[in-house]
Design brief:
The chain is an alpha/beta fold. The chain is built from 15 helices and 17 strands.
Length: about 425
C-alpha cells in the first residue's frame, strides 16, 4: 500500500482530540518517544517558521535533528525531516505498515494525525536523533504531540482566535488549551499574545513552576539584517513577523546553551541565514512572472501579509481560496483595500468555501475593489491575472496553505516533467 492510501484509510476518523489513543498506539510501538529530547512548539501563527529556524540552527551546530510539522504543502514526507531532509517515501511506507499492523481495530482507532505523529516518533527513535523539534497540530493540551513529560523547552509563538470550533469559543479558552503543553519545571518561551490572555498563561506557568521568558521581537539593523541581544543575522524569510519568530528561536537556543548544548552565536547566525520554509510570504516564479504566495489562513496571518504587501507600495491582484471552516469575513477585512483586484477560487480536494459566496462577501466588505471574479482553478485565475497585470500591481495567492500546496505541487510536477523530457 502507498503512503497516501494507508493514511487515507484513517481520514474517516476525523479530528478527535485526546491522548488515550496516541498513548495506546505508542505503547504498542514500544514508546519510541520516551528517549528523545524535544522542543515543543505551539501557538497560532509562526510555529512552522520557529521550528524551521530551530532545526537549521541545531543542524548547523552538528546535531542530528528531527523535525515534525504540519500540515504538509505537497507531500506527506515534508512533515517528518532529519536535518531538514524529508523522510523517504519508501521508509515512511514501511513505518506506516508497521504502525497499521500494531493497531487493534476492535478498540478506539487512532486518527490520521495520530498515525502520522506516531510515524515521526518511530522514525526519530530508529534514526537515533539527538533532538526533535515538535510542532503542535491543533490546540495543545489534547493534541497528539503532547505525550512528553519533560521537554527541554516549550514555545508559544503567538495567539489568535482559530480552531475555536474544537478549542472553545473565546480566546481565553484557546489560550488555556495552548498552555496545556507546559510541563512542571520545564522552561517556557512566550511570544507576543493579546494582553487579555496573558493571565491565562501566567497562571499556568506559576502553577507548574516553569522558568519563563516573554520575548520581545528582534529589530531591523539594516535591510533584512536583524539584531537580537547583540546577535546580528540575515533573515531569509520575509515579513515583519520573522522578527518575532527568529527572536523566539534564539531565546530557545539560549536555554539549550545553558543546559550544556554546544551551540555558538555563529551557529545561530548561519543557521538562521540558511533557513527555508515554503509557502510563507515567499516569492516564486510562474511563467516568467514573480508571484507572492502565503497561506494567510486566519485573520492574524492575513494582517501580517497585508503589512508586508503594504511595504511594496503596489496595488494587489489577489487570488484567494479558503476552507469552509475559516473566518472569511475577517480575513477579507484584513487583506482587501481600495483598488485591489480579487479572483476567488476553490481549494481542491478539501472542504472549500464556495467561490461565489466568497465573491459576494468580498463585495460587501470592500466595495471599492477594481475587480471581483470567480475562477474554476488557481491556474485559470493566474492566466487571466498575468495577462491584465500592470507594472504597479503584484499578484498574491493566499487564503489557505492547502491552496498553496496544490499550486506548488503542480509547479514541482511541471518542473519534473521538463527535466524528464
Amino acid at each position: 500500500m502507498s503512503v497516501h492510501s494507508i493514511l487515507q484509510s484513517f481520514q474517516r476518523f476525523g479530528v478527535h482530540l485526546g491522548l488515550d489513543r496516541i498513548k495506546t498506539l505508542l505503547e504498542q510501538l514500544h514508546n519510541p518517544h520516551q528517549n528523545i529530547p524535544i522542543i515543543h512548539v505551539g501557538g497560532t501563527n509562526g510555529k512552522g517558521s520557529v521550528c524551521a529556524y530551530l532545526s537549521s540552527i541545531l543542524t548547523e551546530a552538528g546535531y542530528k535533528v528531527g523535525r515534525y510539522t504540519s500540515p504538509h504543502l505537497i507531500d506527506w514526507t515534508e512533515r517528518i525531516c532529519i536535518n531538514d531532509q524529508p523522510i523517504s517515501i519508501s521508509e515512511l511506507e514501511l513505518i506506516l505498515v508497521k504502525i497499521t499492523n500494531s493497531i487493534n481495530f476492535n478498540q478506539d482507532i487512532p486518527t490520521q494525525f495520530e498515525v502520522i505523529t506516531a510515524a515521526a516518533w518511530v522514525y526519530f527513535a530508529q534514526e537515533k536523533v539527538d533532538i526533535a523539534i515538535i510542532e503542535v497540530g491543533l490546540g495543545g493540551r489534547l493534541d497528539a504531540t503532547n505525550v512528553c513529560d519533560r521537554p527541554l523547552a516549550t514555545v508559544i509563538t503567538s495567539l489568535s482566535r482559530e480552531h475555536w470550533q474544537q478549542l472553545g469559543p473565546t480566546i481565553k479558552d484557546i489560550a488555556g488549551e495552548k498552555a496545556g503543553i507546559f510541563k512542571s519545571d520545564c522552561p517556557v518561551i512566550m511570544g507576543e499574545v493579546p494582553d487579555e490572555v496573558k493571565p491565562v498563561f501566567e497562571s499556568r506557568i506559576k502553577a507548574l513552576n516553569c522558568p519563563h521568558i516573554w520575548v520581545e521581537p528582534a529589530s531591523y539593523f539594516d535591510h533584512n539584517l536583524a539584531i537580537y541581544k547583540n546577535i546580528k543575522y540575515q533573515l531569509p524569510l520575509l515579513g515583519k513577523m520573522q522578527l518575532n519568530n527568529s527572536a523566539l528561536a534564539i531565546e530557545t537556543i539560549k536555554i539549550l546553551q545553558k543546559q550544556g548544548w554546544k551551540i555558538t552565536d555563529e551557529h545561530i547566525k548561519q543557521g538562521i541565514q540558511k533557513t527555508q520554509w515554503l509557502g510563507r510570504v515567499q516569492w516564486i516564479t510562474w511563467e516568467n512572472y514573480s508571484i507572492l504566495i502565503d497561506g494567510a489562513h486566519n485573520p492574524a496571518a492575513a494582517k501580517l501579509l497585508r503589512n508586508y504587501v503594504d511595504t511594496l507600495d503596489k496595488s494587489v491582484i489577489w487570488i484567494i481560496g479558503m476552507l469552509a471552516t475559516k473566518e472569511h469575513d475577517k480575513v477579507f477585512q484584513e487583506l482587501l483595500i481600495k483598488n485591489d483586484s480579487l479572483y476567488v477560487v476553490p481549494v481542491p480536494d478539501h472542504s472549500t468555501a464556495k467561490p461565489h459566496d466568497l465573491a459576494i462577501l468580498a463585495q460587501e466588505i470592500c466595495s471599492d475593489l477594481t475587480l471581483i471574479k470567480t475562477k474554476e482553478t488557481v491556474f485559470s485565475a493566474l492566466e487571466e491575472a498575468t495577462q491584465s497585470k500592470q507594472s504597479d500591481q503584484i499578484i498574491v495567492i493566499a487564503g489557505s496553505l492547502y491552496l498553496i500546496g496544490h499550486f506548488l505541487g503542480h509547479l514541482q510536477s511541471d518542473t519534473n516533467k521538463g527535466l524528464n523530457n
